[in-house]
Write a structure and sequence with these properties.
The complex is a heterodimer of chains A (207) and B (460). Chain A has one domain (37-202): Alpha-Beta Complex (endopeptidase fold (from Nostoc punctiforme)), CATH 3.90.1720. Helices cover 26% and strands 21% of the residues of chain A. Chain A has five helices and ten strands; from the N terminus they run ααβαββαβαββββββ. Chain B has three helices and 38 strands. Chain B folds into two domains: 46-157, Immunoglobulin-like; 163-456, TolB, C-terminal domain (Neuraminidase, 6 Propeller), CATH 2.120.10.30. Classes of the chains: A alpha+beta (207), B mainly beta (460). Chains A and B meet through helix 1, helix 2, helix 3, strand 7 and strand 8 of A and helix 1, strand 1, strand 3, strand 14 and strand 29 of B.
């Protein structure tokens, strides 16, 4: 009886400690466990519908401030990351990292070529939302908001999202990495009319 | 000897127990963990289609139906390679004419188009239609709107139309300052409203509000999971805890005091939730909405409805008094927002034009066509009240924006004024204005907090 109790007690203690340790640590390891630093694949062109499919693969994935690595399993693999810490290693891009990858941009700001980054390539790119808004970098230009179309972007000093489709009431559906509580998805937004947002366009679309 | 053997056996048992417990504990968490072992992705081909329906038309308008499809193949590589999409539109004159098939032609970039024959485009009772899109080869088939033949789009010719030309909007001119009837600083205290903020994120706070006919003001403080209520719109708010998730929820309050909150973030493959709370904040019911997102909730004559996307249709949450399944909601989708007496209000904005109509089963009863030399963004509010319509639309340039408030009647503009945007924090997208009685209420914010201003529409 004593022997059995010893085995059970040891089992339960070890189970509890192991489970707590494993559960408590997992979400900070997404990047370390899954992401890579592979070089991008240069492509000769970029199309709006092609970029839309790249963006669609990130839908339902997570959000990570300063991040840029996600898989395609339709869930946030690192929910509840501290929002103020860029080093938590969670899944997802932030708004500007997401845009950078969808727009196939280069890490070299003077380079407007098209670079296809893998989903699991952990890269954010050099631009914040504010820098996109200013049209910083060779691939990016400030554009009039009234003329923006699918996969152009609306950027403020703190956020950027890409236009997915117009709504009949004049709002837009926007695909964006919104925040830790939101992840990445398509939502209705009124950024276009809001003067804190400006229009920005990636140059060089083939169609 | 016995003791030594016993001690040895006990140590062995403890070691075995620790080993087994560790292995099972790690394994259990690995299986439960999102990063745990999992099968290769078994995702199916995803087909997303966007379509801007010509809900209201004017004589002689050239009508092309355009469907912008994004197809993500199940076996897509890192480039997110798409798949081909084909489709057909099934249209009818009015709602009961003979069906006409209009093949959709590829126009490049995932876009499919078809031109509406003149016989349909100029039909006095308009036309109804839906599209059937197919991802090739052998991928999913999707109806647009999802209700298909049961709830097609309805395109109506405008009639009894009042034209209103706004000209070029001059920002800062004709701005009316409302009476500030409520203010709450950002925070978590009893008189505060919560602010959600973070790096690379627009601040979000006081995500929606509502006002009843008695003037009771209710603000949804989703950050602190509560409602703030100002009886008569003045004084210190009372607090009612509600179990609403964050996520920029919209709010409507019924005459019995129950509140409906439309959340915007949903689980993958599921629709956003509408939570209903009684006046004391107890959760009464939760209904899942049918489509991937919904941008507004309203209380119609037969119950709550949401404006769903990608269909852009108003979907009822209850059918025959019971919570409706997703397919039921979609089968009852409506082009316009249902209002009293079987009528609907239909809104269509184009770049510098807004069309608003009051429609019945027979067609358009009254309509307003508002044109502008300045780009117009979202229509925040469009309500038809007796012989008049109240419309709030945002005018914008690349540097400025203002809301234009219009009170219109059968002859034109009764009154017009501008309202400063004052939208420092993000709210639910179409929840900034409400009407109660002859008052217009606006939810605004600044770095100091959220507030509600009241404007007299001077409509008695």
């Amino acid at each position: 009886m004593t022997l059995r109790r010893s085995i059970v007690a040891a089992f339960l203690a070890a189970f509890g400690l192991a489970a707590a340790g494993t559960a408590g640590a997992y979400h900070t390891h997404f990047v370390a466990d899954n992401c890579n630093s592979a070089a991008p694949t240069p492509t000769s062109y970029i199309t709006r519908d092609g970029s839309a499919t790249v963006a669609l693969r990130a839908r339902f994935e997570g959000y990570q401030w300063a991040g840029g690595c996600w898989n395609d399993n339709d869930r946030d693999d690192s929910p509840g990351d501290p929002t103020e810490d860029p080093a938590t290693g969670g899944e997802g891009g932030d708004c500007s990292g997401f845009t950078f990858k969808v727009w196939r941009e280069s890490l070299t700001e003077s380079d407007a070529s098209f670079q296809q980054w893998g989903m699991l390539r952990n890269v954010h790119g050099p631009y914040t939302a504010a820098r996109f808004k200013r049209g910083d970098g060779a691939p990016n230009v400030v554009a009039s908001k009234a003329g923006l179309i699918k996969m152009d972007a609306l950027a403020s000093d703190g956020h950027i999202g890409m236009i997915w489709a117009p709504n009949p009431d004049g709002s837009d559906q926007v695909i964006e990495a919104k925040g830790e509580a939101y992840g990445t998805n398509i939502w209705t937004r009124t950024y276009r009319g809001n003067s804190s947002y400006g229009g920005v366009r990636r140059t060089g679309w083939s169609s | 000897m016995f003791n030594a053997r016993h001690a040895s056996t006990t140590r062995l048992a403890l070691a075995l127990g620790l080993l087994a417990g560790t292995a099972v504990g790690v394994g259990a968490m690995a299986l439960a963990s999102p990063l745990g072992p999992r099968k290769a992705s078994s995702k199916e081909t995803a087909l997303e289609a966007s379509h801007l329906p010509p809900l209201l038309t004017v004589p002689g308008e050239d009508l092309e139906l355009r469907f912008d499809s994004t197809c993500l193949a199940a076996d897509a590589d890192e480039s997110g390679a798409g798949c081909e999409v084909s489709g057909t539109v099934i249209a009818r004159e009015g709602s009961g004419g003979e069906p006409v098939e209009l093949p959709l032609e590829p126009a490049g970039g995932g876009v499919l188009t078809t031109r509406v024959p003149t016989s349909l485009a100029s039909a006095p009772r308009g036309f109804t239609y839906y599209a059937v899109l197919r991802a090739e080869p052998g991928g999913p088939v999707a109806a647009v709107p999802a209700g298909g033949a049961a709830a097609p789009y309805r395109s109506l010719p405008m009639s009894n139309t009042v034209g209103v030309d706004l000209g070029a909007h001059v920002f800062g001119v004709g701005v009316r300052k409302g009476a500030r009837i409520a203010f709450a600083p950002w925070g978590s205290g009893p008189r505060s409203v919560g602010l959600e903020s973070g790096p690379q994120q627009t601040p979000v706070g006081a995500s929606s509000f509502d006002v009843d006919d008695a003037g009771t003001l209710t603000v949804l403080d989703e950050v602190n999971h509560r409602l703030l209520r100002w009886p008569d719109g003045v004084g210190v708010p009372s607090l009612t805890p509600v179990s609403v998730a964050g996520t920029i929820a919209d709010l409507r309050v019924a005459t019995d005091g129950s509140a409906y909150a439309l959340e915007t973030v949903a689980s993958p493959g599921r629709g956003p939730l509408v939570r209903r709370f009684d006046a004391d904040g107890r959760e009464l019911e939760t209904v899942e909405t049918a489509e991937r997102t919904a941008s507004r909730i309203e209380l119609g004559p037969e119950g709550p409805l949401v404006l769903a996307h990608p269909s852009h249709q108003w979907l009822p949450l209850y059918v025959d008094g019971a919570p409706a399944a997703r397919s039921q909601q979609q089968a009852h989708g409506r082009t316009g927002q249902p209002v009293a007496a079987g009528r609907e209000v239909v809104v269509l904005r184009r770049d510098r034009e807004v069309r608003v109509a009051l429609v019945t089963a027979e067609g358009v009863r009254r309509s307003w066509r508002i044109t502008s030399d300045t780009p117009l963004a979202e229509v925040q509010l469009a309500e038809v009240r007796g012989p008049r319509a109240v419309i709030v639309v945002r005018a914008y340039s690349d540097l400025e924006d203002e809301f234009i408030v219009l009170v219109l009647d059968g002859k034109g503009v009764v009154s017009r004024f501008a309202v400063c945007p004052e939208d420092w924090a993000e709210t639910a997208p179409l929840s900034r204005f409400r009407i109660a009685g002859s008052w217009l209420y606006r939810l605004g914010s600044s770095p100091a907090g959220a507030f509600v201003d009241r404007f007299d529409l001077e409509v008695r």
